[in-house]
Amino acid sequence: MKQDYLLPSPPAPAIREAMAKAVQRKDKGLDVYDFSSGNIGNLLVNQPVFSKMDVVVGDSVLPELRPVVEGLRDGIVASYYPTPRGVAYSPTGGTDSIRALVARYFRELHGVPVADSDSDRVIVTAGGQQAMTAALRSIKPGTRVLIPQWEYGPASGIIRAHGLEEVRVAMMDGLSIDMDDFRSKVKPDSVCYVSMPNNPTGYMSVDQLRDIVKIMSAADGAVVWDAPYLLTLVRLEGSHASFDAQLLQESLNQLREISEEYYSNLCILSSLSKSCLIAGLRFGFAYASKQWVDNMEAIVGRENLSSPTPSFIAGAEVLKRFLDEPRSYEWVCRVLANRLSILVQEMGDHLILPKNGLFGALYVLVRTGDQPCKPFADSLIEESGIVTVPCNQFYGGEAHAIRLSLVSVPWSEGEEGWLSSVKALKEALS
């Protein structure tokens, strides 16, 4: 397959390759005499240092979140009991058993025709951010990378720092991408980076993603689809947001059709951090071609040598339960819909929202009027203790907007914390 936009596949770092081979033999039950690295945690992994470790899931756990909590429980226990596996090095890209779970995720959620044994086409990373960084740094310097005007800020910094040609694509008033502008800026062997649903705008459109992928494929290019918010999609009608399970399922089915047809031109980045509320575990993953994954593994392996072992163990347990019983995102979507409804009803005129009846991801844009967003955000925190994110990096220029997170405030049954936070922001803005 022609992929002139990628760097050549590099040789694997010798230490990482040796460590991975040792782990693979252990997983298969074969004899291993390991002299590969300074893996001092291995001195303890056969020692039963804890005589008992019992973690009990509380009866009050919400039914939708029980599989996640049970996965965390089993991951915590497996990391340290009966022996402390969590103190030793483990492969940066994930063991074959973890990669098989990730392959299943991309097959079932995204429709990518990847088998459990295709470990060279998936990779596990220390969070979705690491997957994004490695994916973009795998592209040859000088390659043109199209990126929507509103887009995830760190992606732009990585693109420019790696010597790629960043080209911003205009967006319309309703936050949709200007497809005429997009087409005019595509060149052969170029790449598009897009988060869909979009961070920070909440914009989601299956049709626009399909058009983007078709255009890039025809130009022998590729799309880096950053998709951690795949399962955080709600309906937005006027000032009311609601979770519509049928709408989400229809969107997922349409997205799967895109991946089934164009998987060879896609690099898909994802994680469970948003849909399973496990952002602190640092457990991300990606699907791409073998050459792309080779590059990502080399980049991650040179910088980290080992994965965050307990996070990978716990993350695999959560992923396993999620694939068997995917329910947690439904609760997340109901919380998002309720919080978005409150925000729109209290502050509608201040907000910049999609106009196509959908809202995805976890963030909302707030206008700052004529004021630059950085001093505006600084004054909010200094005068009212309200913490927001200025949006210049998300916009690639002066944005006159700040980003609000819908999930930073802890949840409670009556959402008292969210209500008081929204009212404080409304008062500060007025």
Q: How does this structure look, described?
A:
With 430 residues, this protein is an alpha/beta fold. It folds into 2 domains: 96-324, Aspartate Aminotransferase, domain 2 (3-Layer(aba) Sandwich), CATH 3.40.640; 328-429, Aspartate Aminotransferase, domain 1 (Alpha-Beta Complex), CATH 3.90.1150. It is 42% helix and 14% strand. It contains 14 helices and 14 strands. It has helices at 14-27, 66-80, 96-110, 128-137, 153-161, 179-185, 206-218, 245-262, 290-304, 309-324, 328-347, 373-384, 392-395, 416-429, and strands at 122-125, 144-148, 165-169, 191-195, 222-226, 233-237, 240-242, 266-271, 284-287, 351-352, 358-360, 363-367, 389-390, 401-405. Strands 1-9-8-5-4-2-3 form a 7-stranded mixed beta sheet, sandwiched between helices. Strand 2, helix 5 (153-161) and strand 3 (165-169) form a beta-alpha-beta unit. Helix 4 (128-137) packs across helix 9 (290-304). The longest helix has 20 residues, at 328-347. The protein starts with 13 loop residues before the first helix and ends with a helix. The mean pLDDT is 93.
Distinctive features:
7-stranded mixed beta sheet; alpha/beta; 14 strands; 2 domains; 4-stranded antiparallel beta sheet; 430 residues; Aspartate Aminotransferase, domain 1; Aspartate Aminotransferase, domain 2; globular; 14% strand
Intertermini distance: 57 Å
- Principal-axes shape call: globular
Helix content: 40-55%
Order of SSEs? HHHEHEHEHEHEEEHEEHHHEEEHEHEH
Tally of strands: 14
Question: Hey, roughly how much beta strand do the residues contain?
Answer: 5-15%
**What is the name of the CATH class of the largest domain?**
Alpha Beta
